[in-house]
């Protein structure tokens, strides 16, 4: 079983209000979201679009509910924007996260990303970096990771993601091989590896010593097949229910938890399963996820 002092559980607000599809959960308030997170038994959260921007205000609301911020998504544009511009935005987010007491920032390279394009099929249309872009990207990640660690005490974890330049296992491998383990870690996402056709168990075994944040999401394979067969976008897949909470889809989490546990994983495991809250009640699914994780891990 995991050590409760070293592994914590969180849940993402994206099940209540979707940043990329604002109509999903538009009716749900920030207060409802964090109250239901606490009610379901989670102690960590990432940052959603309805969260107060003022750290003092946000901290007060979360403290009332026994919740802390454990990570926040950062969109990097290392291959399409000047590094100084990316660094400025990165530092501003690090300042916020430091004020919130967070230990992790989750970066995703969004240059040429199709994940947010509702009319672009997610399969077969992602951008592929050339050698020069790979160098720019990896050097940039090392640079940002050094700033995060040495100046803010925060770990940069990289989020591989459908529709982006680092999606498939070979791309993750190239990034890991060309970045400094001291400054760049992996945000391991069970759902995104499964979605692109990779084996999440194989991936966790391969990178377990560089994983500093975990996203637990499950997959409904019949919906992913629908997305692939009909050339649908990533966001259309979300609308149709491609993702769900752990234990509700096709992923076998037992061996994944075992690898993390046996290798002494420390940090957050966070349920991040974006669905349409009108179809999948966020509180109901949060409770379902929490129950599943308790049964499987003892946490």
UniProtKB/TrEMBL annotation:
Q: Which BP terms in the Gene Ontology apply to this protein? A: inositol catabolic process
Write down the superkingdom of origin.
Bacteria
A Pfam family reported for this protein in Swiss-Prot or TrEMBL = AP_endonuc_2
Its required cofactor(s), as named, are: glutathione; Co(2+); Mn(2+)
Specify the enzyme's EC class, one word: lyase
The molecular function GO annotations come to: manganese ion binding; myo-inosose-2 dehydratase activity
Among InterPro entries, the record links this protein to: IolE, IolE/MocC, IolE/XylAMocC-like, Xyl_isomerase-like_sf, Xyl_isomerase-like_TIM-brl
The family annotation for this protein states: Belongs to the IolE/MocC family.
Q: Which HAMAP family match?
A: IolE (MF_01672)
Q: What is this protein called?
A: Inosose dehydratase
Species, as recorded? Anaerostipes hadrus
Q: Which gene encodes it?
A: iolE
